[in-house]
Sequence to fold (496 residues):
Amino acid sequence: MSKPDKYLVFLSFVGFAIVYAIVASGAIFHHYIPAYGPAVYDQYFLALWNGKVDVPPQVIRYEGHYAPDGTAYVYHGLAPLLTRAALAPFIQIGSVSLAAFSIWFWAVLGTGLYHLMIARWLSRQVDAETPSTLAVQIIFSLGIWLGGPGILLVSNTALYHEPIAVAYAMVAGFLWCALWPRGEGTYALLWRLFMMACFAAVTVHARPSVAVGLYAILCFLSLYHLRLDWRRALLPAAVVMVVLLVSGLAYIGFNAYRMGSGLTMHGSFEAGSIQYGSTFLGLEPVDSVRARSFEENGRFALARILPNLMVYLIDFQFSIITLFITTLHFHLVNAVSGYVRIEGPSIGLVFLWPVWMFLAWQARAHFQRHWSASNIILGGLLLVTVLTLSYATITLRYRFDIWPLIIAIALLGLRKSQARAPDKPIPPAQVTLYGILTAIGVFVSVATAVSYSHNFRYNVFSMEWTDHQCREIMGEIGFDASEHDHLCRRPEHYTF
Fold:
């Protein structure tokens, strides 16, 4: 990379990190009620520190997963606790919510890595000293920081975004190692695959559905390198398998400890050993449309992929498009795989990330049809996307699980689009097109961030309980007054 490119990446990182911090703090999108679950991971950390795996029901509320005795568990992974562990020696955990900081940290880290990858790829393909190249670098800088997932992540600091933000950063690191120009030799390969395995290992404890794709990539990459030169690849492949196995077994073991089964990641809607909080606490009927769909058709179903893809790509909330899309989706999906909930704001990817979708579209003619490392990477990311599309809920935050496939293909498109004219300026028409698409994406993303900042705040599901409300709820579902003190215990504070 040239010096101007390096300076631009650095200044973008610092400047937009500050912008993200202002947004995450609520200074711009001010609300009177905090986003749902600001203390959940803080209390989760304190519980584990004290040798427990449950949290106060008053903290997790309807999003908890409950044992019959009212013990509340967090079904989300442990990875977001990394920020608490890093800060524990310096602050009193539980005295202030660390949710906003945690989401900000991972969003900035992930977006910074994606920006660096984009800038590096661009600088390697075209003449870096021309004004048009600098213009495109500036355009893509704005496009990734204000027209990518990062700005949407920090706009809403609800519980759900912590594991997604961790996975966003981990996949960025994973792709950095996978796509970055690399050296030769056993130790270069060992270091690269080991780092990729570490990123995948953390992702297991953030977003298992994303980790499935990363695991698949590493397994097939190991086979690919063993086939090329088994002597050079044997040690790296063995190390990768050990890291993946340890992380996977740790995840299964922890699930078995808290849920009673290693393969049980969450409770069911029906009464049982572990039950989802909305039905356990009486907010949602056991036989609700959503509950029946989950129990009868499964959380993942292949029949949902194409109809859900239609929504994820071209929906545009509060427009005639939404009326057509949701009506068609309802009739297509309900007949074969049950009810699918669509949460707003629902914005299609072609409107949300148009420049990256365009670059991905440009790459369509350049896919290799043979066994290659790039095809393995894209295949694993496609697996993640398929799992996301087959799920029984469509929501904005799940679009961030589709992002890695889009940006990986976009990088390929960026490389191939310039390969025909290396070391030549980017044509002005192409610069203009990139600028227009980026401007659209930034406008839609920022507008969506403003709208999304209101989610998970102003409804019964999200709002905090008072002590009196907690005791009323516990009494209504059958717990004696003698049990209320324990079930409605206050959150903990602890100084390390």
